[in-house]
Amino acid sequence: MSRFNTNTTYPLIVNSNQYMIEQKVVSIHSEDRNITKFPNSSSFEIELPDDYTNVSTVQLADYTFPANYDTFSLAQGNTLLTFKIDRPYNPTDHGFYDPLLNALYEALYEHIDEDYLLYISAGFYTPFQIATELTNRLNSVVNAYIYGYLTIKYPDLLSQYVESGGYTQFVVVYNEVSQTLWFGNKSSGFILTNDSNLYVLRRELIAIQCIQVEYRESANWGLPAYLGFTRCPVSSITNTIPGVYPRFYYGTASIPGDDGYWLIPDSNYQTQTVYYLEATSKINLMGNAYFYMQIEGLNNIDETAPYSFDAFTYTTNETNGIHNSAFAKIGVTATPVSQWFDYNSYAVKVFNPPAERIRKLKIKLRYHNGTLVEFGKFNFSFNLIFQMLRPQNLRSYITFDPVANVLSGSSSTATKR
Hints:
alpha+beta, Jelly Rolls, seven-stranded antiparallel β-sheet, four-stranded antiparallel β-sheet, 34% strand, elongated
């Protein structure tokens, strides 16, 4: 009678303190979010199909993502390049006078201490595509400035300038052997002003506009970093021997039959001098090799943060890393345009004691520097495995062993884990 409550005729069932693990796989699709409320698929909330109670672990089982990312984009803050033409071509230095060339020299000289700004198109480039893009952008920026200058000061020379083809002195090529970019100008000296404050100001403005956390980086701080440059300005050099010009000795540089010569003086300028420079490091067009998946309440990855030149790092020896910053770290294993699938993930969140109830997930996909991953209109999906503890009742039962032809008994049906 000790098992009977005095106020009821129903016996109390003894808790065996043993549990069965129930496993449930939940498939999550980015297109199932509230697109009106969460237009960016890299940051959204989603309601799960059921209440998952007494959750002991949550694991990222597998995932599939589209490789349509942009290595260069406004959000990444790496589409800007600044430069100066510090030694513009002066025809009088070469003993002749030409009204148009003199006007061009005057225009360039008035801009000698100011940066030119160019922006490349957002996207993913091959080395040869980025070389062509930079060639056209460099010339286009200078051409637009000169056109405006002549329109105001020398309108009578404008038609002649347009007929001549405009400004076409810059040339950028890719060396397939050294895997570096070479910048050249057929007549004028120039500087890539990689130390310009515009890079810092631009990234800060983008971070404010995007309303997201973004770290200051010493590695991928802007377009020049991807092109193989440091934060130091790089000034062009000139050929020291007339008639001897930069050359790629392994073969064709840019045009079939050029025998490796990629920078030849413009015959209209009557000079034998050219200016050029080589990037200090190999080009990097692959972009981020991984990104982080944050799921609020499941994050258990501690992440280091980029070193910051501020008062905190100067005055303390503490880390500036982040505790429980993400749930999973996902490698980008494909290049655009493609899709990749993987299932080897060590992303597991263990709850002790078990989580009482999980019904909604807040998901964010970001790079290490804090910027969101850009998927555009492409969808992605991943599976989460929920393991839940289900308490078992203490029960006695009898089973029959047909081999031994005997009966056997047991006091519990619970599964130990």
